[in-house]
# Entry
Amino acid sequence: MDTVALAVTDGMLHFELSVAYEIFGSAPDAVTTPWYRLSVCGPAPVRVGRFLLEPDDGLDRLRYADTVIVPGWADVDVDPPADLVDAVRAAHEAGARVASLCTGAFVLAAAGLLDGRRATTHWAHTDLLTDRHPRVSVDPDVLYVDNGSVLTSAGKAAALDLCLHLVRLDHGSSVANTVARRLVVPPHRDGGQAQFVTTPLPARTDHPLAALFPWALERLDHPLSVEDLARQARMSSRNLGRHFRSVAGTTPLRWLLTQRIRRAQELLETTDDTVDAIASATGMGTAATLRRHFNRAVGVPPDSYRRTFRSPAGRL
# Structure
């Protein structure tokens, strides 16, 4: 995979483009093996955020690259330009490995490259990608997805993870680790993007359950059941489930578990409480139960999450 082409056009995100250019544009001094030949392909000139970019070649040159990188697409509510979509599709048909960074997945999806495949994008836009392209199996949690000839990354910094993954595939772990050291980033990150997602309360205040949410949040250390919630809301369990679906998009027990996990995240970030104490404070009962649910929901164990997101203000 010697030649890498960055597919650019007006409306790209400059961070993701810069990440790819930094990694594939030049090898670290310690790497002596031949590096990639990078070219920027797009109509000239190209407006990228507040920067004006002069491409090396037109989009038609994408089909001659071994690897095509599609940076993030800034406005996901607007369809990407047809010439970009056609050029990316043609490159893949010619045998190129195609990778998208962040919302660049919308370009790949428009080109039909994600149909029937698992893919990801920034967590804030996974629902939109699913709605707009129902033939794509969207995974909202992972940092990146490798389908061989088609790869997608989650948002922003996950572009680094995918680009380092490509270097690791092409040059091995030692070289990828060297590149990561130059960038002062870990060569591999644990877990998925769920660990970075804040889970807010449902926004509506005019719903029959509006008073129930704060009541339940004050009692997360209690073993609440669906019947307890229904009794507090003065409705049947079936009616409660229907209302929960409409306002929170999930079941009462799933919502409760999400709030318990979120509370555990806050305590891990801001206190020195043991995992056992946090399990008790969040109604999980035991540390083993907390670890099981936390790892499943967030993608990393509680101890790893604490090391990553520990707040200095919370240290005793």
Summary: The CA atoms of residues 245 and 251 lie 6 Å apart. The chain has a mean pLDDT of 88. The first helix runs from residue 14 to 25. Strands lie at 3-7, 37-41, 46-48, 51-53, 67-70, 97-100, 118-119, 137-138, 144-146, 150-153.
